[in-house]
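Look over this record as teaching material.
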Amino acid sequence: MTLLQLLPRIAVDKPWGRVDLPAPFTPAPGDKTGEIWFDPPPSLRELLVKYIFTSEKLSVQVHPSDAQALAKGLGAQGKEECWLVVEAQPGARLGIGLREAADAETLRAAALDGSIETMMDWHQVRPGDFFYIPAGTIHAIGAGVTVLEIQQNSDITYRLYDYGRPRALHLDEGLAVALPETYDMARMHKVLPESGSLSLVEGPLFQLDLCEGPLLAATLAAYGSEPKLIIPLNAALRAGDCLASPGDCALVTDLSALVIAPATRFLIAQPIHSGETL
């Protein structure tokens, strides 16, 4: 049985993508790579991992919760996500939530005239900034940033504003699920420490941990035997003949099989199924 399996990469060109990708990524000549997705394995279809590379601002958007997606007949899974900033050019920003609470009519008018951008709370970011984005949070990724995104495996996106690009908006659907409120930085924002481990997401839909190797026996036992996703950050991990390096995402079926050098940093992601507790 394969203990460590690299997930296939899917590079996606975007008009707002980049030709100057940060290491270890290398774009194809002439391409503007906007995203690199890792095709989820059958045993972990609930989660999607991807890198996002921006040279322009992305749309102002919002995603529904599981309950809202189910009620609309869109499937049983909405979209909650989180962002880890891995590279940021000077002045790079992420827009998350509003600076002040607003009612739906004010939001609609602001989406139509573009002033919703100025209503948002824009955070200047640097590598190591981490943000959890609950469903219903109005958000946008600015230019000049590379973000590692771990999300529910859903493509339900409602665009509220798109800077005049010729794409459809989804004001009715988006405003129906949007939380017209501020973002709780104290609860949802973390900064990766220079060393050591840190729990980044503790539910309710998935768990995400920053780990520094090697893993202790008690830590291995606490994770259980369910399959997990491993995302190397600063050095490679090995199990048998398979090597997962920074820029990869891999499925691991046995954490104890990993050969992890000291100070190696990586993320462990796994879904939380109904009835499970951390």
Q: What stands out?
A: The helical segments are 66-71, 104-113, 116-119, 171-177, 185-188, 217-223. The chain is about 15% helix and 35% strand. The two ends are 27 Å apart (CA to CA).
